[in-house]
Design goal:
Multidrug-efflux Transporter Regulator, Chain: A, Domain 2, two-stranded antiparallel sheet, 6 helices
Length: 142
């Protein structure tokens, strides 16, 4: 996988949240726990997407409890913004193998972080099976 990794400081700078708020969202279960512990803890673009979605919903007055429901897969009470030139979107970029890449927009797809992780696992397992089968066939196997 070719995800961008962030420190808590970087994540907070990008989302304009304080570290205290980000930690509070983790404690509440709105934001996924960091990868690793202590000083080695880091965050991915999935965490960035979660915080940006939380920010978008809180800015229009959605309660944190309702945001939790949305992050768990309920329909968003706010319709997605229409895309326009110059708009910024957060997407996960999955590098599967040379020449094979997948772009995922969890918010647009309505996927929870757990669903994204499960999807990535399944894609990688399938790619391994298919690509190792292709290598076997190239070597003369049937």
């Amino acid at each position: 996988m070719n995800n961008k990794i962030f420190t808590l400081d970087e994540l907070c700078t990008l989302t304009d949240y304080s570290k205290r708020t980000a930690r509070y969202y983790i404690q509440m279960g709105l934001l996924s726990r960091p990868i690793g512990d202590g000083r080695a803890a880091h965050y991915s673009d999935i965490h960035l997407g979660q915080l940006l979605q939380i920010k978008r919903l809180t800015e229009v007055g959605v309660s944190l409890e309702r945001i939790r429901e949305v992050l768990e897969g309920d329909e968003s009470p706010v319709s997605p913004r229409k895309r326009h030139p110059g708009s910024v979107e957060v997407r996960s970029h999955l590098f599967v193998a040379p020449g094979i890449e997948i772009q995922i927009s969890p918010e647009e797809a309505g996927m929870t972080p757990e669903q994204v992780r499960a999807f990535v696992r399944e894609v990688m397992e399938t790619a391994d099976r298919v690509l190792s089968g292709a290598a076997y066939i190239k070597k003369g196997g049937k």
